[in-house]
Amino acid sequence: VKAMFPSVGTTSSKIKPVAGQFRENLNDLLRLCDSTEARFIRCIKANQKAAPLLFDAIPVNEQLTFSGVYESVDIRKGGYPFRLRHKQFAYRFMCINQGENFRKSYKYT
Length: 109
Known about the structure:
Number of strands: 0
Strand content: under 5%
Structural class: mainly alpha
Distance between the termini: 57 Å
């Protein structure tokens, strides 16, 4: 029973508010995202029947169009970088930011 109802004075430092738990979980997620490099795999069905050795061009073309693959290719053909790391983006567009401390802390790598 004591485990279910701890006394008020003894465990108050161990109990975290919901906002604190959320902040901690969000920080863990951001650390994980910063430590990885995003890769996206797009699965395209070759046909509606899922049959081997059968290719249906119309649905494949629709899947490529609606998933943004063609748009990504057009952006790349235009000479624009498709994905920049956060530091690269911040360095490239630092003229928009007015904070001097921010400008000094980031280097293009």
